[in-house]
Amino acid sequence: VNDLVRKAKQAEYLIESLPGPDPEEEKARRLDELETTMEKADSEYIKALDRASEPSPYARLLTKAACHALCLFLPRRRVASPTRTITQGSHRHPPHDAR
To answer: Which residues form a coiled coil (predicted)?
Structure first.
């Protein structure tokens, strides 16, 4: 019998030491904080996606420089055309026929 009483008192002590349910106001406040945190994270994620989708000015400059370098170093060949000779590899385009 003493063992049962002692076990009952231990169980009662453990139950009393458990945290009680949060008041509704505390739950609402924590949910609001969580929602604010999630909105901020979503906003930062969208901004990061926007930045990643646009090439940086440095990347645009490197691409432009690479294109110009290719135009300078690619061999130029003359291709016969029925009306005119076209230089391939040149970054300059022949004028369009005015019709």
So the answer is: 24-51
**Side chain identity at residue 32, one-letter code:** D
Distance from C-alpha of 75 to C-alpha of 84, rounded to nearest angstrom? 19
Q: Where are the alpha helices (DSSP H) in the chain?
A: 2-17, 24-53, 57-73
Parallel, antiparallel or unpaired: strands 77-80 and 85-88 = antiparallel
Give the CA count within 13 Å in the CB-facing half-sphere of 28.
Answer: 3
Sequence spans of domains, the chain: 27-73
Structure confidence by residue, pLDDT tens digits, 21-73:
768 888 888 889 999 999 999 989 888 888 877 778 888 888 888 888 877 77
